Amino acid sequence: MTELSNLFIVLVEPESPGNVGFVARAMANYGVSTLRIVGADPRQDEQARMFSVHALDILESAEIFSDLPSALAGSEAAWAATARSGGNLSVSRAVVPLMELPDPTSLGGRVALVFGRESCGLYNKEVDACDLAFSIPTSASYQSINLSHAVAITLYDLFMRYAPKKARTRSEARPATREEREQICKFIDEVSDRLPVPEHRRPRVKRVFRNLLGRAYLTGREAFTLTGFARLVRDIVCEKQEDYSAP
Q: What is the per-residue pLDDT across 155-187, written as a single tens digit (0 to 9) for each?
């Protein structure tokens, strides 16, 4: 088993085939072997193949997808890289610094690291499709990082902090699936819709709960417990509303 074998990289519409080759090379440096690409297929491009050097096998085995949700299939968590942060007042773009990402090796599930286009990064809807967004600290005078550099820095950070120095046994706890986390959110959404929350604030409340669950690397048991609790709260709120509406 390689050091970060449960990670895989997703590139959304990369614009430079050469960058894709460099990404494959960085992946090989840190024991990550699965590459998924949303958009055009660069696997036979001359520059992509030349710049991948001894990681040509990673490039050649890359999977091509038409959209991001398809590329995230089979992942228990998806972490989106972004250079754009809305600050403390932003809910839809609550960004975690790279050095605060949780340990992706602590559970057995697969974690997708998602990177966007060289020119404009990920669109808001693509960030929202992931569980959390993270940023790489840079100088305020120039915050944009080359795609392959961003992948290399991210993998280096995770490798240095979390790659086991010797073989170790991962937790036997099963990681929560994306579907299990979404079920919790659905119950929370129902509660939000039934409580006297101002209409214009409901999307923000729902987004905050999704952000919290996205930043938490939940086990299946934790998700099961939270689902039961959220369902109970939903049922109580529904019962109270029925009592108030009864003649």
A: 999 999 888 665 555 566 788 888 888 899 899
- The pTM of this model reads 0.76
Residue ranges of domains in the chain:
7-162, 178-245
Q: Residue 36 in contact with residue 11, Cβ under 8 Å?
A: yes
Residues 6+ apart with CB under 8 A from 25: 51, 52, 53, 54, 55, 148
Predicted confidence at residue 89, as pLDDT, reads 44
DSSP β-ladder status, 132-135 and 7-12: unpaired
- C-alpha 127/C-alpha 133 separation (Å) is 7
Domain 7-162 falls in which CATH fold? Alpha/beta knot (3.40.1280)
Contact 92, 124 (CB under 8 A): yes
